[in-house]
Amino acid sequence: MRRRTVLLAPVLALALATAAAAPLAAAERTLRLDPAATTIRFRVQARAHQVVGTMPLVSGELRFDDATGAASGEIVMDPTKAVTGIAKRDRTMRAVVFEVERFPLVVFKPRAVAGEVPEQGEGEVRLDGTLAIHGGEHSLSLPVTVRAGASGIRATTTFDVPYVAWGMTNPGNAMLRVADTVEVRIEMSGTLQ
Predict the structure, then answer these.
(1) Which domains does the chain have, with CATH numbers?
(2) SS3 of 155, please?
(3) Less Cβ crowding at N or C end of the chain, within 10 Å?
């Protein structure tokens, strides 16, 4: 029995020393978005006017680690319910531009966050990931303003989507010119866990 104790003592001492020297692992945090309190707006320039619309959030969950910058999860949007306020234009947008029969969802999947998401107060981060839209996946780097308080998190990002370059149809014609890029603004609300 004495020999086992003698051999075990150095191993145990090494294990304790290694554990004491290692930094504590950062806990992964999760932001769960509230679809009812999240707004997705889009705006595209057309001849002599702008087309402004909205699209609902289906679900959203972002997991991130401030220490490593790793991020995961997804933000799921529903183009089948995108509206601009003019029924005929909305039908064309859904059927011709989004092709919702073939591609019923738009999904952003984060992979990294640069900057620290505050527990309280305001901060700026960059969220890198991919946007799955219209059958393709495209890299995006989103600038995000974050406001954290007792009632939860509010985060806002604005970015451009070159929808024509990404394979979607421009709904314009000779009489009505429509820009090939749409601006998207997402105002997210949720709880941080």
Answers:
(1) 26-192 (2.40.128.110)
(2) strand
(3) N
